[in-house]
Amino acid sequence: MPARAKALCFCCGLSLLGGCSIKTSDFPDEDYGPESPVDVSHIPDAVPQHAPRSKYGNPPSYTVFGKTYHVLEHARGYRARGLASWYGMKFHGRRTSSGESYDMYAMTAAHKTLPLPTWVRVTNLDNGKSVVVKVNDRGPFHAGRIIDLSYAAASKLDVLARGTAPVEVVALVPENSAGMEEPPLSLQFPAWVQIGAFSSRENAHQLQQRLQEQAGIAAIIKPLEQSTGLIYRVWLGPVDNQGQLRQIREKLPAWGIEAYRVVQ
Known about the structure:
Number of helices: 4
Number of strands: 12
Shape: globular
């Protein structure tokens, strides 16, 4: 570990030195998943947002194992194919290159050159399954591998057992600003509150059901066709006035919603 820390000292959090596999007695130092499989079907896809670049993970360039990587100025138009690997318990809770703690049960990933953070759609080319993840770390540094997935993302794409899989990675551009921002003064009613966007209709449906029970108001799924495929948006509403909107916004953190958009 000291040699690795020295090689990656530029950001205090680069945690990926290659692909991961199930822990075995033959390879005790390899990464591994939990003792028993964890159901991650309820974990929603990451939602693309406008966010500032990480102060820690975006140097113009950096060198690992004698190879220099140049961080892209932006992610617009990025599309690539290669092998995806995954990382799990070995790095769970450690600091990532962006400064965030690595959570193997969150929909995140590591990439060598995309700006941190960037949101990407990852599609398993063997089975067609697709997820949206937030890139918040650096790696993998094995030849031919273009992205390292969190345990949760790898599980949804059926990558865990094999360790790697051929994928396509496409950068996503947020529809608009996201977050807990104030709605525009010119807002017209009725309006809706978008509290999620997913590549999987099943994941959108699960959030729809949960929020209908918690909010006590209707939640609908609004598909949106994009160049990278369908996105299933979950909307609460309709909201008829500012008072009702304020009540919903105040309750969103308790419902586990970290970002929302008011739409018409």
